[in-house]
Write a structure and sequence with these properties.
Elements lengths: L11 H13 L14 H5 L49 H5 L5 E14 L2 E11 L8 E4 L6 H4 L9 E4 L2 E2 L9 E7 L10 H9 L3 E5 L6 H6 L8 H13 L11 E11 L1 H9 L5 E7 L12 E6 L7 H11 L4 E6 L19 H7 L8 H7 L10 H19 L18 E5 L1
Parallel strand pairs: 1-5, 6-7, 6-8, 8-9, 9-10, 10-11
Antiparallel strand pairs: 1-2, 2-7, 3-4, 11-12
Helix pairs in contact: 1-10, 1-11, 7-8
């Protein structure tokens, strides 16, 4: 499997440049491991995920849409998704693309079992909240995910922050519990990398949880400490155990329905969730800019990719994964989007790319052409501004999980009714 980690960092200025680039590249479609950072890597056909490469590379044949099938029945009661709310046949694709009826809260928990060198064991959780969260903002600064010695070298005037509409530790909405989606971040990235997507799902009545993977997170990638770390699939399983066993007096415990879970992952995270998707109680998974190994879990799936992705080939990897997955499954290819469209990383510091931040920090000259290409995958023309493609991603993701968890009796918003033009949709 190929990955896009930095191989070496020599001087402090070059190290800062690399960290900014790597944060943008949460890139490969595999599991854990080292990542190439050359221009050659950027132009090489991206491999598929998990243990072995997928050997077939089918192509799409236009914007074809087939009628979605009903969710399969399961033999085990523990893997059957209960209807967590009353079915809501009135919801429309356009509504799913916009923020949902809930305000959103954000909070952090620490699982000592997940704490290792280069990983704090923190789990970020986004959840439906009361009106207390209205008008509040929450977010992160990329510096939080850097080794301290490196973070100190980034000038304080550089805006490396991303914010969402959420209230930190806001009171959870009272109508729960709500279904749980576990998220896996990309290579050389961090747990909050797709916080805007997580916020959107939470506004529609889901709880989203994400933790850092020390085998491929930004901190360990920068200091060369990814080898020998716990594998990312184990991180996901331990996070699930931690959330299932929260003390009854923890405010988060009352908002969580842990009887079944959904999975979501970006890039390398897509390979991770493919490994976990066969676990008991998984109702389905959404894979963004990623692929699949030779063993596909027999659960519903949604694959999304940008047609302009230069890090993970949307045909040879993502389309091949869709073809290999059992039905029901959906494939969305977004015409004017690239690899990082499924994360916050093209919008750090406002509308800046992480390369822009490197330039502002005065270290742009240390970023070579290959790194620059990878760091801006999906962030610059001819890619559309990521904020304009997020509604399509939100629509498909929300519609998929509402159906997978039994909220909607039939899939809504997963056909060609994309709110964003230029989306190719296939289903089976």
């Amino acid at each position: 499997m190929g990955h896009f980690y930095a191989a070496s960092m020599r001087r402090s200025a070059a190290l800062i440049a690399a960290l900014i680039v790597l944060a943008a590249c949460g890139a490969d479609s595999g599991g854990d491991g080292a990542v190439a950072t050359t221009a050659e890597a950027a132009t090489t056909a991206a491999p598929t995920t998990a243990a072995t490469d997928t050997t077939t590379a089918p192509t799409t044949d236009g914007a074809t849409t087939t009628e979605a099938t009903a969710p399969p029945t399961t033999e085990s009661a523990e893997t059957t998704a209960p209807a967590t709310t009353e079915p809501d046949p009135g919801v429309t694709p356009t509504e799913l693309a916009a923020a949902g009826p809930f305000e959103v809260g954000a909070t952090t928990r620490v699982d000592p079992a997940l704490a290792t060198d280069g990983a704090t064991g923190e789990i970020e959780i986004w959840y439906p909240a009361t009106d207390e969260a209205a008008g509040a903002t929450d977010g992160y600064d990329v510096r939080e995910y850097l080794p301290a010695a490196i973070a100190d070298l980034v000038p304080p005037e550089v805006n490396a922050r991303f914010e969402i509409a959420a209230g930190r530790d806001a009171t959870a909405a009272a109508d729960g519990p709500y279904p749980l989606v576990l998220f896996s971040h990309g290579a050389a990235s961090f747990r909050t990398q797709s916080s805007d997507l997580a916020r959107h799902l939470a506004s529609w009545g889901f709880v989203v949880a994400s933790t850092d993977h020390p085998s491929r997170n930004l901190t360990n990638g920068l200091i060369g400490a990814t080898e020998g770390q716990r594998d990312s699939a184990s991180d996901m399983r331990q996070m699930r155990v931690f959330l299932e066993t929260l003390p009854a007096d923890d405010p988060v415990a009352g908002v969580l329905d842990t009887s079944v879970v959904g999975l979501a992952g970006h890039s390398a995270g897509g390979g991770t969730i493919a490994q976990v998707a066969s676990d008991p109680g998984v109702v389905g998974y959404a894979s963004y800019a990623s692929g699949l190994g030779d063993a596909a879990a027999d659960v519903p799936s949604l694959f999304m990719a940008g047609a302009l992705d230069i890090s993970v080939d949307p045909i040879e990897t993502t389309t091949a994964a869709y073809e290999a997955a059992p039905s029901p499954s959906w494939l969305w290819i977004i015409e004017n989007a690239g690899h990082n469209a499924f994360s916050d990383l093209c919008a750090i510091g406002g509308d800046a790319t992480l390369i822009d931040l490197a330039e502002q920090a005065g270290i742009g000259d240390f970023v070579d052409d290959g790194l620059r290409r990878l760091a801006t995958d999906g962030c610059e023309p001819p890619n559309a501004p990521v904020q304009t493609v997020w509604p399509a991603i939100n629509q498909a993701s929300t519609g998929f999980f509402r159906w997978a968890f039994g909220i909607d009796a039939e899939p809504i918003g997963l056909d060609a009714s994309a709110v964003t033009p230029g989306v190719t949709v296939e289903s089976k």
